[in-house]
Write a structure and sequence with these properties.
Blueprint: E1 2-8, E2 13-20, E3 25-29, H1 36-45, E4 49-54, H2 66-72, E5 76-80, E6 90-92, E7 97-100, E8 103-109, E9 118-123, E10 128-133, H3 151-162, E11 170-173, E12 183-184, H4 185-191, H5 201-208, H6 219-227, E13 245-246, E14 258-261, H7 265-268, E15 279-280, H8 286-290, E16 299-302, H9 307-318, E17 324-327, H10 330-337
Parallel strand pairs: 3-4, 4-5, 5-6, 10-11, 13-17, 14-15, 14-16, 16-17
Antiparallel strand pairs: 1-2, 2-3, 7-8, 8-9, 9-10, 11-12
This protein binds fe (ii) ion (FE2).
């Protein structure tokens, strides 16, 4: 199994990519909106198809990339059923399973940092790996003073749901602030100052209730955004700004879209060519034809530079289409990203 630990240095957040090299299916755990291009490029380079974005909880310090990645790929999103994220595809409860390739992820409810926290557990055949979010860090744990956090609940989650995985289980945290990457159950039982085996529940509650931390800088933005799958709210009266952009370098599987090229007929015959699968419909005729289509069709709009197609996409959205993206940079960028192979080489 492929395991990649990716880092957001602004919020010290870890994102994990898990992939099955045999099937090419992959999952991202806790993707961050600022790193969408990085993560899509890595998936592309590893020739992986994203099947799930899983959040360990509704984050207070950063915005999830789950909703945007769902619209950019064909993946589904999952988060705790108790987290209140109505737009998630798969509300997960204790013991629920998600598969990618030949691997299974078990969701374990580990509330306490928030009321809707999950730990994702995967057995890679040799070792049990647990992606703990903010339930436990290397030598620490997530705070319990907002989002219905509760120290007693967190103590029980760690001891009953995480330490029960066995001493050898590898723990991958949602954050690290001191340069660590991962740990094991045994290490934390021995050395975690808050959660080693000799710390009682009463002492833990006392520690957590006296941390006196300031609020995360982005909490007022991040929590509402994450309750909406992290999809940025569009400014009013600017329909163009609602159009999600798709970079041609990140497209692995073009068959997930109906691709619509809105250039004029002479342009299709020009040197930039056209994408083989594209429907070729000049912009002036677009709405006439689009009125025949299912409003939920997954559309990718294309033109020469990305500007006309962006307008066309905005018009479709205004007319009730729910899943329209724009090919950033149009055919110019497409040809740079997908050069036609020289038959002699
Ligand atoms: Fe958190």
């Amino acid at each position: 199994m492929i395991v990649r630990q990716l880092f957001d240095s602004e919020t010290s957040t870890y994102t994990y990519l898990l992939g099955d090299p045999d099937t090419g299916e992959a999952v991202l755990i806790d993707p961050v909106i600022d790193h969408i291009e990085r993560d899509l490029q890595l998936l592309n380079e590893l020739e992986m198809t994203l099947v799930y974005c899983l959040d360990t909880h509704v984050h207070a310090d950063h915005v999830t990339a789950a909703g945007t990645l769902r619209s950019r790929t064909s993946c589904k999103t999952g988060v705790a059923a108790t987290a209140g994220v109505a737009c998630a595809d798969t509300p997960l409860r204790n013991g629920d399973r998600v598969t990618f390739g030949g691997y299974t992820i078990e969701a374990r409810e580990t509330p306490g940092h928030t009321s809707g926290c999950l730990t994702y557990v995967v057995d890679n055949g040799n070792r049990v790996m647990a992606f703990t979010g903010d339930a436990i860090f290397v030598r620490g744990c997530g705070r319990t003073d907002f989002q219905e956090g509760d120290p007693q609940t967190l103590y029980r989650s760690v001891h009953q749901q995480i330490y029960s995985l066995g001493d050898d289980a590898i723990l991958y945290p949602g954050h690290d602030y001191k340069g660590h990457s991962h740990t094991t159950v045994l290490e934390e039982k021995q050395h975690n100052p808050r959660l080693n085996a000799s710390v009682t529940e009463e002492v833990f509650v006392d520690i957590m209730n006296n941390l006196n931390l300031g609020m995360p800088k982005k909490i007022d933005v991040a929590v509402p955004a994450n309750l909406g799958c992290g999809i940025p709210a569009a400014p009013e009266n600017e329909s163009e700004s609602q159009v999600p952009e798709v970079s041609p370098t990140t497209i692995v599987n073009r068959s997930v879209w109906m691709i619509v090229d809105v250039r004029e007929p002479h342009e299709w015959e020009g040197e930039l060519g056209f994408i083989a699968e594209a429907e070729r419909i000049p912009q002036a005729q677009l709405m006439d034809q689009a009125n025949e289509w299912d409003r939920n069709t997954k559309l990718l709009m294309v033109c020469r530079s990305g500007r006309r197609s962006r307008n066309a996409a905005a018009e479709l959205i205004e007319n009730g289409f729910t899943d329209v993206s724009n090919l950033t940079g149009g055919m110019i960028a497409w040809n740079e990203a997908h050069p036609v192979a020289d038959p002699e080489s």
